[in-house]
User: Fold these one by one.
Assistant:
Number 1:
Amino acid sequence: MPEISIVLVEPLYEGNVGFTARVMKNFGFTQLVLVNPCPLGDDAIMRASHARDVLENAQRMTIEEIYREFDFVIATTGEVSKSVCTPMRMPYYSPAEVREIVADIDGSIAILFGRENWGLANTELARANLICTIPTSKVYPILNLSHAVGILCYELANLPRGTYPLAGPIEMDSLYQHIETFLDKIDHPDFKRENTMLLIRRVLGRTKLTTREVSTLHGLMRRTEWHLENKE
Amino acid sequence: MPEISIVLVEPLYEGNVGFTARVMKNFGFTQLVLVNPCPLGDDAIMRASHARDVLENAQRMTIEEIYREFDFVIATTGEVSKSVCTPMRMPYYSPAEVREIVADIDGSIAILFGRENWGLANTELARANLICTIPTSKVYPILNLSHAVGILCYELANLPRGTYPLAGPIEMDSLYQHIETFLDKIDHPDFKRENTMLLIRRVLGRTKLTTREVSTLHGLMRRTEWHLENKE
């Protein structure tokens, strides 16, 4: 399988952390990462049941560290109403589509789940490679956290190890920095900058660039920059 | 959607019943049936959250009533080791396969989930049309009840209404009775009877017979019986 970690961002209820550990192990996942979680006590241990090891081996990381360490980051969000088609949460992919997309990745993947009451902040979502939304009923779309984790784990279980060598987070960061500089050079307006970068991150994020492709994109931008600087 | 009911058979923990109601409603299902459940109190209501209506409208039925009332009954079981290939629990289908199978049904479907500690009894399984097993890790295959329900609901959500007119439970019962009588007439040995009937129930159960097909099978048996009785 690709190395998939489940990341809970500021979970509020220890019972949900325990249930998450359990359902992860049910589908063969053992790498749990916690970002600033609630205190974990007996209730978490009880609900983890025979997945106490997953709970106890959970790593603590910051959002910054997650985007620095993982090759591919998937952020989950609740279903958004059609009227809120912001580039922050669109386009989104179903768990089955995510399975297709990540199936051939050879690299580390993090799946982010937000707080029980309001999910992930835009700042936590912005750098994700792609957004995943579990299709739910409009009448009552709010899944319990551990049920959402369970459905992702069910879909992503038993993936064969991919062979697709992803560019790492450092390479991708340097590409995005280059693009930002490039946008400066073509006088891209400041007020549009954030949304444009978000869109570029989403498009390039989900295309799963290889190291070679990243370097080709750098080359194309450098070539364009040369012509911009040397125009008569 | 086909009319799908979720049936919990003797659930032991009210929290799981509440969580079940919630995850059902998350995927658009509202018909919960309880067979001899534990007492339901505050914990069930709390975990049902905004699906309190599903919990409160839950019907109480017996296993007998379920097999009498529903056109198609799916029994869920934990994954069985390969060494226990009994006809009782084999062959089994994954939730995705079940989706394919039930997709075109026009009729009422019940999905049975057993007790948290030991699942469904053989007597409760025996008459099911088919067996569904969620593929899990061998290391820790025991899913929490509500997580198992959630995965089935996720797979079966948003099915279009089928157009396939199933023979009802009364017609199917009369077919199985005819087959039993027929087996008597051909001196089928008693000690094999139970397993043979189980196999026949499974095969005919999952083929989703129409009323017309049932009557053709009756006709074929009657014709054979006539020849058995009128042989020289």
Note: The first helix of chain A runs from residue 14 to 26.
Number 2:
Amino acid sequence: MEKPLILVTNDDGITAPGLRALIRTMKEIGEVVVVAPDSPQSGMGHAITVDSTLFSKKVVVDHKEGAPSEYSCSGTPADCVKLALRVLLDRTPDICVSGINHGSNSSINVIYSGTMSAAIEAGIEGIPAIGFSLCDYSWNADFEPCLDAVKKIVSEALTNGMPKGTVLNVNIPKTEKLKGIKICRQARGNWKEEFDKRRSPSGKDYYWLTGEFELLDKGEDTDEWALAQGYISVVPTQFDLTAHHAIPLINNWNLNEH
Amino acid sequence: MEKPLILVTNDDGITAPGLRALIRTMKEIGEVVVVAPDSPQSGMGHAITVDSTLFSKKVVVDHKEGAPSEYSCSGTPADCVKLALRVLLDRTPDICVSGINHGSNSSINVIYSGTMSAAIEAGIEGIPAIGFSLCDYSWNADFEPCLDAVKKIVSEALTNGMPKGTVLNVNIPKTEKLKGIKICRQARGNWKEEFDKRRSPSGKDYYWLTGEFELLDKGEDTDEWALAQGYISVVPTQFDLTAHHAIPLINNWNLNEH
């Protein structure tokens, strides 16, 4: 039987240790092709490159543990997936995995996440897709403790298929002793930004974005709760953004009367 | 009574005719502050500027018809809203309106939309928010025919408030004879990309992203249907991306057994 074709991408760039760990793990269960940004793309959300050129080339990052086919791309994570599906791959991948991100994409962070935008882009094309993120921003983060679970989740996705219109947002707590895997909903939360205002040598005002995440949700069915308890959180995530429950409410507005 | 404070932004940049038309219209119902990108940010999705500086300055674009306070910002639409709320505004705006975009943000385009990312960013902060898009990509598009409806929708949002966790994605067909306003769901669809491959003078391969939108949904309750019939479509849009219906399905996967 043909091995499953696994498209691997990320948003931290093709040399990121989290991506390299994911490639090693995916090679154990399938044929791996990598198409990943040539530079970090964190916080890119679902950006795509319009009105600008996109460069891509075949590269070898790691002779020993890399994939047979790896391409770097000058674009965003969503661009990488589009280019992979339309140009670089010979056949449709059986699954697309993105990550392992250096840092959390739980709760509202899914909205800003380049990692998840790659998974969502594949999902829109009907391809099972999963974004993986480790809650450790360090470039030297230890990915080893989670690799068995990553492999298990991908294997189960290949076996079961994905519910229609759904991709998975998987977040992994920073711990050597993972308690297990919990299926969750996205916790409500937001960022309390602070802008660090400075002045350039030429006298222009500029800002650095900083801030703290504020959790607004104590539900024990949320990703944040699971992570705090030492569980891997899996949130089925959709790209139909319609707030269906709000349609009847807005139908009561006085929009068409004069 | 204090006039409502209206934050106006967009993704086409602070000089875009669609933004200028929105400013003129909003000045009829409230006090307007503009914080908008200093250059076009189309297709930026929900990108934010991390690990890079953000410049902002007070500007005057149009002495006669502009707003008393306008700021340009070097960042993305989501950055503009964050900077407005945390730094530039004296009080919380009563509503945030984004647009009017030069081009459609219906169906799956909501995912890639900088216009909508600004509205969603405000929505995350609990501020009523609406993204407006005209289905005409031309810089010289005629915004006049839709301005009464835009004003109506904003007025109704101010009167009724917004359902919790919801913002509005409003798309306007390119026609002088609008039939009315329909509350809709997001149509299923995707882009069939084609990459136009070229070679640079120095011998590097590069691509231009092109493609056609493919509608996969004929539902008469969708935004695409409403637009095709000449109606303005209003889709209540949420930022809880959890596919709640998929949670029990994925709970059946064999993830925690050994």
Note: The mean pLDDT of chain A is 94.
Number 3:
Amino acid sequence: MTDFFKGIAPIKYEGPETTNEFAFRHYDPDEVILGKRMEDHLRFAVAYWHSLAYEGGDPFGGQTFLRPWFGAGMDQAKLKADAAFELFDILGAPFYAFHDLDARPEGATFAESKRNLEEITDYLGNKQASHKTKLLWGTANMFTHRRWMSGAATNPDPEVYAYAAATVKAMLDATHKLGGQNYVLWGGREGYETLLNTDLKAERAHAGRFLQQVVEYAHKIGFKGSILIEPKPQEPSKHQYDYDVATVYSFLKDFGLEKEVKLNIEQGHAILAGHSFEHELALANALGIFGSIDMNRNDYQSGWDTDQFPNNHPEMALAYYEVLRAGGFTTGGTNFDAKLRRQSLDPADLVLSHVGGMDTCARALRAAAYLFEDGPLEAARKARYAGWEREGAKAMLAQPLEAIEKAVLENNINPQPRSGRQERLENLWNHYL
Amino acid sequence: MTDFFKGIAPIKYEGPETTNEFAFRHYDPDEVILGKRMEDHLRFAVAYWHSLAYEGGDPFGGQTFLRPWFGAGMDQAKLKADAAFELFDILGAPFYAFHDLDARPEGATFAESKRNLEEITDYLGNKQASHKTKLLWGTANMFTHRRWMSGAATNPDPEVYAYAAATVKAMLDATHKLGGQNYVLWGGREGYETLLNTDLKAERAHAGRFLQQVVEYAHKIGFKGSILIEPKPQEPSKHQYDYDVATVYSFLKDFGLEKEVKLNIEQGHAILAGHSFEHELALANALGIFGSIDMNRNDYQSGWDTDQFPNNHPEMALAYYEVLRAGGFTTGGTNFDAKLRRQSLDPADLVLSHVGGMDTCARALRAAAYLFEDGPLEAARKARYAGWEREGAKAMLAQPLEAIEKAVLENNINPQPRSGRQERLENLWNHYL
Amino acid sequence: MTDFFKGIAPIKYEGPETTNEFAFRHYDPDEVILGKRMEDHLRFAVAYWHSLAYEGGDPFGGQTFLRPWFGAGMDQAKLKADAAFELFDILGAPFYAFHDLDARPEGATFAESKRNLEEITDYLGNKQASHKTKLLWGTANMFTHRRWMSGAATNPDPEVYAYAAATVKAMLDATHKLGGQNYVLWGGREGYETLLNTDLKAERAHAGRFLQQVVEYAHKIGFKGSILIEPKPQEPSKHQYDYDVATVYSFLKDFGLEKEVKLNIEQGHAILAGHSFEHELALANALGIFGSIDMNRNDYQSGWDTDQFPNNHPEMALAYYEVLRAGGFTTGGTNFDAKLRRQSLDPADLVLSHVGGMDTCARALRAAAYLFEDGPLEAARKARYAGWEREGAKAMLAQPLEAIEKAVLENNINPQPRSGRQERLENLWNHYL
Amino acid sequence: MTDFFKGIAPIKYEGPETTNEFAFRHYDPDEVILGKRMEDHLRFAVAYWHSLAYEGGDPFGGQTFLRPWFGAGMDQAKLKADAAFELFDILGAPFYAFHDLDARPEGATFAESKRNLEEITDYLGNKQASHKTKLLWGTANMFTHRRWMSGAATNPDPEVYAYAAATVKAMLDATHKLGGQNYVLWGGREGYETLLNTDLKAERAHAGRFLQQVVEYAHKIGFKGSILIEPKPQEPSKHQYDYDVATVYSFLKDFGLEKEVKLNIEQGHAILAGHSFEHELALANALGIFGSIDMNRNDYQSGWDTDQFPNNHPEMALAYYEVLRAGGFTTGGTNFDAKLRRQSLDPADLVLSHVGGMDTCARALRAAAYLFEDGPLEAARKARYAGWEREGAKAMLAQPLEAIEKAVLENNINPQPRSGRQERLENLWNHYL
Ligand SMILES: [Co+2]
Ligand SMILES: [Co+2]
Ligand SMILES: [Co+2]
Ligand SMILES: [Co+2]
Ligand SMILES: [Co+2]
Ligand SMILES: [Co+2]
Ligand SMILES: [Co+2]
Ligand SMILES: [Co+2]
């Protein structure tokens, strides 16, 4: 046990009026909404990489955080795990998520890295056994080490492909061992810096085959969780193959994986790809590949992935509304892929950033759920498309063009536009917020 | 015959050193490159909408151009067609492209619009018969009139779907009649302004079925050209279903159309979607759906679709290199979806903007072709992936993960990165420019 | 009197729980906040151009709205004015704002345009006399007509400069006659499309001299209102001279106008310039040139000026907080430079878009005012800079560098960073929202 | 002497047709253009930070480069200096530029850091004495160490201000000792992450006073070089006070420094601020504050500062044309603030990236100079504004508005627009490229 969080007690729900900074104002885990406890709706996870491993660096500056567990050995790795579960306990977080590299020291060889991973995941498993917090997902970091600089599964060098395959196998084994409910692949280096040196077609084929191998292996070991791809358009690469939801779907279709793989959708990545978060969620739902979310927020003013904690509940409400329309989470959850600003040095900052994020999500979920339950938005949507329920409308979809033209001519069809009522629907939303 | 271009003689190739503004410096139609005449490589088309119909308006200002053919009647439509072919003659353009609305007066009813279309396309057909210029593609404008404000095939009102079906049929008939080599669909209103009032899944299904109906009809009438979709991420809509190449491909796969439909890729739309033009071309080629290009340039500093004439040959060379890698155009070509700046009032501006654009493309093609012919870039690309030709590399793709892990462990695989040589390849390019 | 808004009664405050769409939920004009009525804090104005004159066009489509007052004559202009004041009455708007061109028919000559302006402003003056609504500001439209295509005061042609001078004089006279509290200049065409044909230095000098002439004239006629510049970085021009607050300030300083001219700051323009709205407000306040605001919202996903009604009260609260820090409005106010989406066809849309916008602002103001009154954010800000109140801190600013270096060496100064507490301050904000 | 560049001989000019990758194709230092040697026009500088100190990291990955001089001691610092001058010799670079932190080990105290700086700059001075390469500019790194995380001169903590003052003094002394021709200040941390914790007005005042202190000290020690500010809008900070040229100018005016301080303008920063490079150069020239350039290129597709080597000579030609219009460099030069892509591991990459950049600049300069010398663009610009030379035009600027209105009415002035000829001027440019 560390004393890093000394003096910070577990956070309790105290309601919107509390003046206690160390309390939830909106997140009441046991509140029942749409027939389900809030905790079971939101399924919050803490991200090991941001909350335990991030040192405060940015492209123009180095470490700002001083954490007792920073360092390269197994002792520090265990101290980090101790602190992690202390944080989880304080927050009452039902889940966490991690990369291999977040938790274990990098070894000099693959074998050593693997042994380190086994040792630390045994340690984490013991932690889980005595704490509430479970593993939402595991993932392999295949972007930090210089071996990945030109890609993992899409590397021009087949040795790197092999190393990537072994790495994912090891981490999928570890995730399975820890009862992880999902396994995530994020391809930060699966892209290119310049088309000039890139065989896009070959790399795409390798990426597809790699994913098939992962799915086959997950079946073989009996992993019951979901395999998730996390789209991102760029950064660190100039262009990444998993650009956005539609792009990943096109990829899954080509490799016959659209029933096997779902998506982990991140707010900041949606923004970077020129979409809204709710768009990506709605599209994934329409395509049947919605899985989980990485909750954060990007600064609209910055062109890079800022991974901040969410703080605008009206925006988040639009996202949770789409989660509800998709039927809510099954294996997925709300993972805070969000990091402290590098000036936020204190243990209290680490705790309270999560508290604020959880409250923002809770408030957003509640508003979305009430609106969803009451139904006026869905009623308005339905009314707008009501013409398609009229006789002959759907039949037209089966007709040849010339028959439709004939009907237009004979009936002198001259459609008159009707108001889209956007501002009224926005006002409706604001009634619930 | 108009006197709009009075005093402007047909443009001839005079070589890079000429000081004659009214001459081609780089575009020599008869120059043979990679075994093909330059004209047959580039297959330039003039866009009727920008070059004949655009009045100079922008979101904050109205008409600036004074053209004798502006006006709503059939006489003006014919005068416009006369001027069009005079422009084509001056430029020696082998092709043109148009929307129904560019060429015919809008009627009070669908029937009247259709009769107008038939009359004006007969007129255009006569023009074609006596001129060199042929039709690269036709398309239906389903975005300007208020009936389309909420979409065409994706409209909440099935009457609009019907009207759209009849409109496309009419224009596909017209394109077929005129010997058009392609038929293009661009869905500027096939998207949404707000998700709040949108049934994304239903709209996507209607768009898919619509496209199937179009393809079926094209087969029925014996249209031998290509059906092309032109992706664009946004503008006029906040979000369009045909976002980019990957998105359209996912759509084609879902509706079984990936062998039936190809893409018309526009530089400016690639930029708006967060890609480079060459990326979109390379991806379309990798996916087997490359068709044609809309050549223009967007201002990187502006966030909207500026549709300017290209003037940066190094950038365009990257694009034509991908066209060459894709085997060059078959039915497709280089359509100038580019408009004069609204301050460029004079007939000479209209001519010389095209001359500059054609020269930029010619210069770009020549550089790309020489580099492609000499082969050093392809050799470098091949060398980078040479490892995949080594024994066992491809076999690994068929192995299960655990076998690959075993090999990594047994052989203590520890891949060492090799330089990507980006700057050297950029220098190589500059040697050809 | 028109019957356009038939059946829509004046909007009343009914509180947050009302289910009446035609009621204010948050805007209670008489509620006293920080010692001032809410109406006197917010000073709402309706924009004539968007709410009365906009026809629903966008770059890819024409008119969608059908308004009985559309048309070119004086009768329609008066009908428009009647409808305007009916809208103002329904909303209880204390102010409106307009361009000359919004209200009067354009004449064939300057003289005729001026006579038209005088006639319609007499008519508006009579309206004002019998209604609550007063004029917040007037402005001259020097961007729509083709004569302005290359600029107004910055036009290469001095005749256009002269026409602009006469136009502003006429509209400043009209604004003065109507008791306008401000006069606004927005330079949509005061910029360039290409540097290649632009004498940037000369144009800047002309713009500066023009502004001096306007200020001199305002003094001469005894106009007591504020002269305001509205910054915008681009659109319609590729680059505008009044880029953002800092740019306008540099310009005012160069022409000795920083005490004479203030700023009208628009949310959407702040976004287009790469800033947040609150940044621009805070900077204008720091520079002593804060005047008024154009309230709207831009779509972060679109790269152009969408001019939507605001609907995110947490964002707007950040803006009103800066307004409060600046001491609130004096002659300025909250002008809705916001337009209906072009699919929002109905009279009810026109009313309710304003109702939603007003409620969003009211809710934002209330939250900002409570936070400002309670003081915790200002206390935190003060505490962060408390070191500067310590002995010797300010004295250091008067020392030469070598003395400061000496002190650093002698005292072995080694500053230790302290947490910036960003997330905690964001949580604090959310407590008030 | 190191053997890092073993086998790479000094680069010579061999002309455009050479197939030798290790030769200049366009940069011929002795070629005389507009009466000046090309070397004296371009005044190339190599950036120590990118070319010697950068390890290949990015936000998602660590070191990729393996350089024998990496490490924390004085021996490595000297080895680095040896390699630096070997690189300068190979390139024939007339200048270099560096931050204190690039060249010296960071000490545990300010005193130790200063001693280290003195030792290494003595070493660099000896190098300079025996090599051609001189110091273009020095600068202090006040953004990497955690003490700067909340700003240097704008830090809430006056101790950091003191430390910054001492740091700049030490580095200005060092620059002076080495005969540096300029001293640059770039304020990467002089900005904010959130307005919530920021006293913008106080920080701006501190920044202004700091700059005055620096200027005063430079005068005192007889530093004859230029003091330069390098604008950047954001990154690493969310918002930086030295946003762009216009913003810095407003700041200089407020603190009476517009005659004392000039600008170092970077291509990538211009892009990030929403401008073109040539715009920023033209504006600085118009304002009389043009100093030097940081040459690089940003990827238009990425939203962060990519600092790549330039490779598009048509774009760079627009920039050098503005440099020529400003009279060329005096103390300034062309500093490559450009770094290798992190996959470009080899010594040859480091050399050839500079060779390509130098060639791109040389080619650009040559085109710009020929166009400038021939004069057609300046003639066209002059003709466009010729109206202002007509009688009465300039006199109008001295008249009151009412007199101008009178003239408009009496002469029935009705200005007719004339073509801006943008495309023709773009074609003209392409004739020179
Ligand atoms: Co993520
Ligand atoms: Co992210
Ligand atoms: Co197009
Ligand atoms: Co376009
Ligand atoms: Co405005
Ligand atoms: Co606006
Ligand atoms: Co720089
Ligand atoms: Co930079």
Note: Chain D has a mean pLDDT of 98.
